[in-house]
Amino acid sequence: MCPAATMSTSATASAPAAAIARDNSRPLVLSGPSGSGKSTLLTRLFKEFPNAFGFSVSHTSRSPRPGEVNGVNYNFVTRSEFEALIQQGAFIEHAEFAKNLYGTSVQGVKQVVDQGRVCVLDIDMQGVKLIKKTSLRPWFIFIQPPSMTALEARLRGRGTEKEEAIADRLETARAELEYAQQPGAHDLVLVNDNLDETYKRLVAWIQERYTI
Ligand SMILES: Nc1ncnc2c1ncn2[C@@H]1O[C@H](COP(=O)(O)OP(=O)(O)OP(=O)(O)O)[C@@H](O)[C@H]1O
């Protein structure tokens, strides 16, 4: 994997478009500290290109809530089915929350590709490390906050976390930023200072690699 290109709104470096084969079967992985702007950027992207992208449907062992549809909100399976899938190596990542298992499966990613969409994964650093062990060949984008101070301000400004959770997220962010410094960790590092500029650079980079 090539060293990541780092782009802030003032940088211009990018690989020549002609050198890269467009391949919509390659998943697009977005990672970055909580509060760095992943959801904001993805919301814009899905709105501008409504038919181009899709999220994979996760598996869960929890029961469906009223209105939830199997295969749409989640792939609902029993706990023993979930555990069998773990044994078969079906999951890129899985975790337990409130006594229920949740996971992202290789099959779930392939389903999105089969629907003719680019599969987008918004995952954390552990997920990035795990997906690298699969045969899915994703592109990796890291959304970097301009500074820890800015990240803290955004997390507070969002108003969705308690003070303790903010401290936890900042601690995790330090580890994620450190990992992102390693050569080959990501294909693109986007410093999200000016949102409009970051979004433009994200779209330009995606359009060099996918037909959307
Ligand atoms: N470039 C930017 N400048 C200023 N504020 C921004 C910018 N990008 C995003 N924000 C704001 O920062 C906050 C965090 O962004 P967002 O929720 O998209 O982060 P996230 O990376 O998806 O976090 P999480 O992983 O916790 O879901 C939001 O309130 C968003 O409006």
TrEMBL record:
GO terms for cellular component: cytosol. CDD domains: GMPK (cd00071). The keyword ATP-binding applies. Residues 25-207 form the Guanylate kinase-like domain. Keywords: ATP-binding, Hydrolase, Kinase, Nucleotide-binding, Transferase. PROSITE patterns: GUANYLATE_KINASE_1, GUANYLATE_KINASE_2. This is Guanylate kinase.
